[in-house]
Here is the input.
Amino acid sequence: MSDLRPVNAKTYYESLPASKPSCGDIWTNIPSFGLLPTNFTAAISISPACDISNFKTETLTFLPIISVSQYFHTVGFLPILRREILERLKAADLHLEIAWPETGYYQPPVREIEREIARLNQLLSVPKKARGWDVHVKRAMAGLSVVGCVSTNTDINYDDLSSLLGQKWEDTKRQLITNSYRNDIHFFLVTSRILIHRASRNILSHFSDIQSQSPLNFCSRRRI
Here is the structure.
């Protein structure tokens, strides 16, 4: 049923967003603290509204809003690359000769990646009798090329990513579109395809710290 109450100036001003921060605010130019390919990002506040209104927290918790292509450059995607590369090398009865800790969030130096690609390329020149052996090695090399792009923050060749993941590449794209990829990554449409990605550590920003480090007009927000 329509609201037929008269509209006056008081009604208009009361309908505006509150001046205080609230859960669901989207802020721009939030520092990424080295967790993302860019130094600053848009981010959505997920701190509970009741905690903010009752002054139970002095810290706002933000989740960065990034594009799909940016997600593939984050440290959060590195463990997936590491796992797939190791699977391909295991299938070829080979081992990865890069110091890459098990969690996978560490970015290997580019020189080590290049050296490993050269080693695998040299192995390809030696005839192997096992059927499909070379396919696994080439897919591992493609994955290492993607890791190199992540480490240098350069554009990823998506043919390499497709080669590494194989059928999983189609599944990954489908899961992103249907918002079923991961529990901590949410896909949604605003004006373009956007991901909210919870990085390896939550981006926690003390609101007063952000204000003290940058002018008030440096950060802006909007409601969703």
Q: What stands out?
A: The first helix runs from residue 9 to 14.
